[in-house]
Write a structure and sequence with these properties.
Layout lengths: L13 H36 L2 H35 L9 H10 L3 H21 L2 H8 L15 H35 L3 E4 L2 E4 L1 H28 L15 H31 L3 H30 L3 H19 L6 E5 L14 H4 L11 H8 L5 E2 L5 E7 L2 E9 L1 E2 L10 H7 L3 E2 L1 E5 L11 E4 L4 E2 L10 E2 L8 E4 L9 E5 L8 E4 L12 H10 L4 H4 L8 E4 L3 H8 L4 E2 L4 E5 L2 E12 L8 E2 H5 L13 E2 L1 E11 L5 E5 L5 H9 L5 E2 L5 H4 L6 H14 L4 H6 L4 E2 L2 E2 L2 E5 L3 E5 L8 E10 L12 E6 L16 E6 L8 H10 L1 H12 L2 E5 L3 E3 L6 E10 L7 E9 L2 E5 L2 H8 L46 H23 L2 H22 L2
Parallel strand pairs: 3-31, 23-24
Antiparallel strand pairs: 1-2, 4-7, 5-6, 6-9, 8-12, 9-10, 10-11, 13-16, 14-15, 17-19, 18-19, 19-22, 20-21, 22-23, 25-29, 26-27, 28-29, 29-30, 30-31, 32-34, 33-34, 34-35, 35-36
C-alpha cells in the first residue's frame, strides 16, 4: 500500500511580493509628497510675508512637544510591561483559564510589548503637541508686578505657570494610571497576581511595582490638590456673584484642600513602605480615610460654614471678598481708570441751547452705514463684477484742519457675477483686483437724499486721489478671489483688468500688471506643481499666462492674514479700510485674552460682542476674565504686506508672546502720523467693557452686594432681539474743551423677564482718537467717561424714544402715505448725544422702493430732546424746529435743499462683457410748490380719515379717503416728472 504525501503549501510568488512592496512604496511616496507640498506651500507663503519665524516656531514647538509627550508616555508604559514580564514567577501554577489566555497572547507578546507603548505614546504625543502654546508661555512668562489679594503671588503665575502645571499634572496622572493598569494586567496574565478561593496573592516583584506606581500616583494627586488651592481664585466660589473664593472658600475650601494634599502625601509614603515591608493594610486603610476626609473636609465642612455662618451674615463676612472681586475685575478689563460724574439732564428745549455744542452737531452722522450700502452700490458699482461691503465702515479724515467723520468702503470684486464668463482665465488671471475706495461725508446729504462723496469714481477722483503716489488698486480685501496669478516680465502686454472705461467692449478696458511683492513665486515648475496640487487646478501648471515673474496671491482676507502671522491674537470682528500715506490699508485690532486672572469675573465673549451689527461671532476662547487691545495690525490692500504694532507694550501676555516670536512685532514708535490718525478704540473691546460696567460701574462692595443699581445695554430699537451696537462719532462731552472722535453707548436699568424700564441710567463714552503724532499715543486715548443720569430727571431710553417717534401723528402719516405709494421706510441708527445740557436723540429716516431696485434715500430726520420731538427734511431744520426756531448750531446738512420725489435710480450697469459710461448721480431737481401742496393735502387727508374712523363718521371717512387717493396719485405723477 502506497501513500502520497500532500503537496507543500503554495508560497506567494516573488513577483507578487515585489509588486505589492512597490505599490506600497509608491503610495507612501505619493502621500509623503502631498504632505510635503502642503508644508512647502505654507513655507513659501510665510517666507514671502517675512514671517517664517512664526511657522518655524510652531513646527519646532509641535515636534518637540510631540517627542516629549511620546517619550513621556511610551517609556514608562514600556518599562512597566517589561518589568512585570521579566519579574514574573517562573514556576507559578496557573489556572486553566490563564493557560488559555497565555496561548492566545504569547504569539503576539513581542508585538504587544512594543505596540502598546507606541500606541499610547502617539496619543500622548498628539495631545502634548496641542499644548505647545501653554508650555511656551510658561517658559517665556513675565512678572506683572501685580499680586493677588489671597496668596500674594504675582498674577503672572496664574496666567502663565498655573495652566502649565495643571496640564503637566494631568499628563502625569494619565501616564501613571495606564502604567498601573498594564502592570496589573501583565502581572495577572503571568501569575504574579493570583485571585482565587477568596484570596489575593501578589508576588514580591509585582507588589513592589504596583505599590511604587500607586504611591507616585498619590503624590501627583497631592500636587493636584495643592494646585487646586490657587485655581479657586479663577473659579466661581460658593457665592456665584463673584469669581474667586469668598469667606467659605478662604476659611473652609482652601484649608481643606491643604489638609487633603498633606494626607495624600502620607498615603503615598505608606504605599512606598508597603513596597518594602509587604503589608497592604496600612495604605488601604489610609486610602479609605483619604476618601472619607475628602467628603468631610472637601464637601461637608464648607457646606456647614456656608449654611450656618455665611448665609445669615453674608455681607459682613463677604465684604472683603466682594471688594477684591470689584478691584481685580476693574484691572483685568482695563476699566479702573473710568471717571464717573453725575449728570442732571435738562429736558426743556430752549432757543440757542446748542450754541456751545456747535462742533458736535456739525458732525452728527445722518448717513447710516448699515442702510446706504445699496445706494453706494447703485451709484458707484459701475460694473456688476464690483461690490461694496454691507454694512459700510466708518472712519474720519482731516480736511482743512477739521476732522470729518466719513462712511467708507472699498470697491472689491464679485466673481459670482461673471456668470458663464467665470472660467479659469478670467477668475485667476484677468479679474484679479478691486479698484478704489469710496468716501462719503457722514453728516451731509445731497438734495435728493444721496451721500455726498469726497472720494469716488473710476478712475478714482477726490481728495485722496490728489495725494502723491496714491495707489487705488485692491488686491487684498474681504471679498477677494480665492487666488489670483499676477505679474509678468517687463514689456509683456498686461493681462489684468484694471478698470472699465467708456467706449466699445474692445477699447473700454484699462489693463495693468501687478508690480508689488504680494505672493509666492510661480517662476519654477516645482512651485507651479505645488500650487496646482494645493488648488486642484492643472491650469497653473500648463497655462501660458504663468511665467517666470508670476506670483500667486491667496489667503487674501485681511483678518485671515493677520491671524496666520499672529495666531496668539483674537481679532476684532471689524477690519476697516483707510488711506494711510497714499495706500489703502486694512486696520485690524488684535486682543490678548486669558481666563486665569485672579478674582476677576468671567464673561462670555460671544454674548458680550453679539448685537444687531454682529449677531453670531465665534471664538476659540469664549469665557474670559482678562482682555487687552495689545496689537494694532495693518494689511496693505495692494501688496498684502502685514505689519504688527505693539499697541499695549505693558500687557504681560504680549510681552510673553514677543519672547516666543521675538522679531515679528514693531514698536509703536514705528507708526506713522497718518496711521496714528486713523487707528481707533476697538469696537469689540468696548462691548466687553460695557458688559462689565453694567454691573461693575460701582466701586464699593456694598453697592455691588445690594445689586440695586445694575444696568444693561438696551436692545436695538430696530431689532428687539439684539443689543444696540455702540457708535463712533466726533463729539464734545460735557466739560471737555473740544470735540474728539469717540465711541459711545447707553445703559438702562437691568431686569429679568424682559420687563426693563426703558429710561437712561448711564451714558458711556471712550476717547477713540489716538492723535496724529508719529509713534506717540494721545494721553486722552482710551479714557472712559460715564455720565450717571440723575434719577430725579428721567430721560427716555432708546426704546421709549423710538416708540415716541413711531407714535407721532406726523411720522405715522408720512409712513402710511409712502406705503400706499409702494415704498418702504427704513429707520437709521438712533444716536444719543450729550448736548445742550441734556441728551439729544437723532435718527435719519430713509425711503426706498419696495420693488426689485432698492435705493434708500434720506428723506427725513427725527430728533428728540426731553419730551419734544421734531420731524423735518434735514437735521438742521429739525434742530431749529426742536429748539424754538433756532438751535444755535448748524448741522452738516445746513445748505441742503431737499428735492421732493427724489432722483430716479440710475439704469442697470452692463455685465462683464459689456461696456458703459460710469453712472453719475442725477442733479437734484428744484422742489415745486405743487409737490409740497400735494404732500400736505395727502397728510391732512390721512389725518382726517383716521379721525373719521375713530368717530364712526363713514361719510367723512369716504370723502377723506377719496382725497387721499387723489393726492397720492398726484404725488406719484409729480415724482416721475
Amino acid at each position: 500500500m502506497t501513500t502520497t504525501s500532500s503537496p507543500p503549501p503554495a508560497t506567494p510568488s516573488r513577483t507578487r511580493r515585489v509588486i505589492a512592496i512597490t505599490l506600497a512604496i509608491i503610495a507612501a511616496l505619493v502621500v509623503a509628497f502631498f504632505v510635503f507640498a502642503s508644508l512647502y506651500a505654507d513655507w513659501l507663503w510665510f517666507d514671502q510675508l517675512g514671517f517664517t519665524e512664526v511657522l518655524l516656531t510652531q513646527w519646532i514647538a509641535r515636534v518637540v512637544m510631540f517627542v516629549v509627550g511620546f517619550l513621556g508616555m511610551a517609556v514608562p508604559v514600556w518599562l512597566s510591561i517589561q518589568l512585570a514580564y521579566r519579574l514574573r514567577p517562573v514556576y507559578a501554577r496557573l489556572s486553566s483559564q490563564l493557560d488559555r489566555y497565555q496561548e492566545v497572547v504569547e504569539p503576539l507578546r513581542r508585538l504587544a510589548m512594543w505596540g502598546i507603548p507606541v500606541f499610547f505614546g502617539f496619543f500622548a504625543g498628539f495631545a502634548a503637541s496641542a499644548q505647545w502654546e501653554t508650555t511656551w508661555l510658561w517658559f517665556n512668562g513675565v512678572a506683572t508686578d501685580t499680586t493677588d489679594p489671597e496668596f500674594h503671588l504675582d498674577t503672572g503665575f496664574y496666567m502663565f505657570a498655573m495652566p502649565f502645571w495643571s496640564s503637566l499634572i494631568g499628563f502625569a496622572s494619565a501616564v501613571l494610571l495606564i502604567c498601573l493598569l498594564v502592570t496589573a494586567l501583565v502581572s495577572y496574565l503571568y501569575g504574579s497576581v493570583r485571585v482565587g478561593q477568596r484570596e489575593l496573592r501578589i508576588s514580591k516583584s509585582a507588589r513592589i511595582q504596583l505599590a511604587v506606581i500607586a504611591g507616585l500616583y498619590l503624590l501627583v494627586q497631592a500636587a493636584s490638590l495643592w494646585l487646586d488651592r490657587y485655581k479657586t481664585l479663577v473659579e466661581s466660589g460658593a457665592d456665584d456673584r463673584i469669581t474667586g473664593p469668598g469667606y467659605t472658600g478662604v476659611n473652609a475650601i482652601i484649608p481643606g484642600q491643604t489638609i487633603l494634599a498633606i494626607v495624600a502625601v502620607i498615603v503615598a509614603i505608606l504605599f512606598f513602605v508597603t513596597a518594602i515591608i509587604g503589608r497592604w493594610r496600612y495604605p488601604l486603610i489610609a486610602t479609605a480615610l483619604l476618601v472619607v476626609s475628602a467628603i468631610v473636609v472637601g464637601v461637608g465642612y464648607p457646606w456647614v460654614v456656608n449654611t450656618f455662618q455665611v448665609q445669615p451674615n453674608r455681607f459682613s463676612l463677604e465684604e472683603e471678598f466682594y471688594q477684591r472681586n470689584v478691584d481685580m475685575t476693574h484691572q483685568a478689563y482695563g476699566v479702573s481708570g473710568l471717571t464717573q460724574e453725575d449728570f442732571a439732564a435738562v429736558t426743556d428745549a430752549e432757543p440757542g441751547q446748542l450754541r456751545d455744542d456747535a462742533a458736535t452737531t456739525a458732525q452728527v452722522r445722518i448717513m447710516d452705514p448699515a442702510i446706504i450700502s445699496p445706494n453706494v452700490r447703485q451709484l458707484e458699482q459701475y460694473r456688476s463684477y464690483y461690490q461694496f461691503a454691507d454694512p459700510l465702515d466708518v472712519d474720519r479724515y482731516e480736511r482743512d484742519g477739521v476732522s470729518q467723520d466719513t462712511v467708507v468702503s472699498v470697491r472689491e470684486l464679485n466673481l459670482d457675477q461673471l456668470g458663464n464668463a467665470a472660467d479659469w482665465q478670467n477668475s485667476a488671471v484677468v479679474y484679479t483686483h478691486g479698484y478704489g475706495i469710496v468716501v462719503a461725508k457722514g453728516n451731509d446729504r445731497t438734495g435728493d437724499g444721496d451721500p455726498v462723496f469726497l472720494e469716488r469714481g473710476i478712475p478714482a477722483s477726490g481728495f485722496l486721489t490728489d495725494q502723491d503716489d496714491f495707489q487705488p488698486r485692491v488686491y487684498f480685501g474681504e471679498s477677494s478671489p480665492p487666488y489670483s496669478i499676477v505679474g509678468a516680465p517687463e514689456g509683456t502686454p498686461p493681462a489684468e483688468l484694471d478698470y472699465p472705461e467708456g467706449g466699445d467692449a474692445a477699447s473700454g478696458e484699462q489693463k495693468t500688471t501687478f508690480e508689488g511683492d504680494g505672493g509666492p513665486s510661480l517662476g519654477s515648475v516645482f512651485n507651479r506643481l505645488v500650487y496646482a496640487l494645493k488648488f486642484q487646478a492643472e491650469q497653473i501648471l500648463f497655462s501660458d499666462y504663468v511665467n517666470s515673474e508670476s506670483q500667486i496671491l491667496y489667503d487674501r482676507n485681511p483678518r485671515e492674514r493677520v491671524q496666520k502671522v499672529a495666531p496668539y491674537l483674537t481679532l476684532d470682528n471689524d477690519a476697516y479700510p483707510s488711506v494711510v500715506d497714499g495706500r489703502i490699508v486694512w486696520i485690524i485690532d488684535g486682543y490678548t485674552l486669558s481666563a486665569n486672572y485672579p478674582y476677576s469675573s468671567t464673561v462670555s465673549l460671544t454674548s458680550a460682542i453679539s448685537d444687531s451689527s454682529n449677531p453670531a461671532p465665534r471664538f476659540a476662547l469664549d469665557d474670559i476674565n482678562y482682555i487687552r487691545n495689545s496689537v494694532k495690525a495693518t494689511v496693505d490692500a495692494y501688496d498684502g504686506s502685514v505689519t504688527l504694532y505693539a499697541w499695549d507694550e505693558e500687557d504681560p501676555l504680549l510681552q510673553a508672546w514677543q519672547k516666543v516670536y521675538p522679531s515679528t512685532i514693531e514698536p509703536i514708535s514705528e507708526m506713522s502720523a497718518d496711521l496714528m490718525s486713523h487707528v481707533r478704540y476697538p469696537t469689540d473691546l468696548f462691548k466687553v467693557q460695557r458688559t462689565i460696567l453694567g454691573v461693575y460701574h460701582v466701586d464699593d462692595a456694598r453697592s455691588f452686594y445690594q445689586s440695586d443699581n445694575r444696568w444693561q445695554t438696551p436692545n436695538d430699537p430696530q431689532d428687539d432681539t439684539a443689543l444696540q451696537p455702540p457708535y463712533y462719532l466726533t463729539m464734545q462731552m460735557p466739560g471737555e474743551e473740544a470735540p474728539t472722535y469717540s465711541m459711545f453707548t447707553s445703559f438702562i436699568p437691568s431686569s429679568t423677564g424682559g420687563n426693563a424700564r426703558n429710561v437712561l441710567m448711564g451714558y458711556l463714552a471712550v476717547n477713540s482718537n489716538a492723535g496724529a503724532e508719529a509713534g506717540v499715543k494721545s494721553e486722552d486715548y482710551g479714557k472712559l467717561r460715564m455720565l450717571v443720569i440723575d434719577a430725579d430727571t428721567p430721560v427716555s431710553g432708546p426704546g421709549q424714544v423710538q416708540n415716541d417717534f413711531d407714535s407721532q401723528p406726523e411720522v405715522s402719516s408720512f409712513v402710511n402715505i409712502l406705503k400706499q405709494g409702494d415704498s418702504d421706510v427704513l429707520k437709521g441708527n438712533l444716536l444719543t448725544l450729550p448736548v445742550g445740557g441734556g441728551l439729544l436723540y437723532v435718527q435719519p429716516v430713509f425711503v426706498q422702493s419696495s420693488g426689485a431696485t432698492k435705493l434708500p434715500k434720506l428723506q427725513k430726520v427725527l430728533v428728540s430732546f426731553g419730551t419734544d420731538i421734531a420731524f423735518e427734511d434735514t437735521l438742521n431744520e429739525a434742530l431749529d424746529t426742536l429748539f424754538g426756531g433756532d438751535s444755535g448750531a448748524d448741522a452738516g446738512d445746513t445748505d441742503v435743499e431737499p428735492t421732493p420725489g427724489g432722483t430716479p435710480p440710475p439704469q442697470p450697469t452692463p455685465g462683464p462683457t459689456e461696456s458703459a459710461e460710469p453712472t453719475e448721480p442725477t442733479e437734484p431737481a428744484e422742489p415745486t410748490d405743487e409737490y409740497q401742496a400735494a404732500l400736505q393735502e395727502a397728510q391732512q387727508a390721512l389725518v382726517d380719515r383716521q379721525t373719521a374712523l375713530e368717530q364712526g363718521d363713514w361719510a367723512a371717512y369716504g370723502e377723506a379717503d377719496a382725497r387721499l387717493t387723489t393726492a397720492i396719485e398726484r404725488l406719484i405723477e409729480l415724482g416721475e416728472q
